Amino acid sequence: MTQLLADDCTENYEVIERETTARDRTAASLVRDDAMSAPGVVPATTSDGHCLEENPDMVDNDQGLKHRQHSCKVCALYKSKPRKYTKYFSPECSTGSNR
Fold it and tell me: Where do the segments described as Disordered lie (predicted)?
């Protein structure tokens, strides 16, 4: 990557913008892709070949029978706040009850 200095030339600003845009280096968001195509439908496979399935674990509490929520592995690694929870998991990556 080349070092870019602030300059008044619009050509240089375009180069800076192209070099600093992370759009091509980040993973696609499943939430945004699903919202645009078909709301409420989870794709059978993701772009990297993982098959997402709904977690079958149920818990009975005061409000009735609900799906058990699990912490997102990505959010757990990066300790993002607020934490994200999901009821979907990838069976290929999950072992036993670790979902």
Answer: 32-54
- State the pairing for strand pair 88-89/70-71: unpaired
Q: What local confidence, expressed as pLDDT, does residue 79 receive?
A: 60
Tokens of 63: 């409000």
Token look-up 């990556």 returns: 93
Task: Determine the 3-state secondary structure of 44 from DSSP.
Answer: coil
The model's pLDDT over 28-62, given as tens digits with 9 standing for 90+, comes to: 655 554 444 444 444 556 666 666 667 677 778 78
pLDDT band at residue 19 using 50, 70 and 90 as cut-offs: confident
Token pair 């069976």: residue: 91
Other Cβ atoms closer than 10 A to 67:
14
Sign of CA dihedral 53, 82, 34, 41: positive
3 state SS of 25: helix
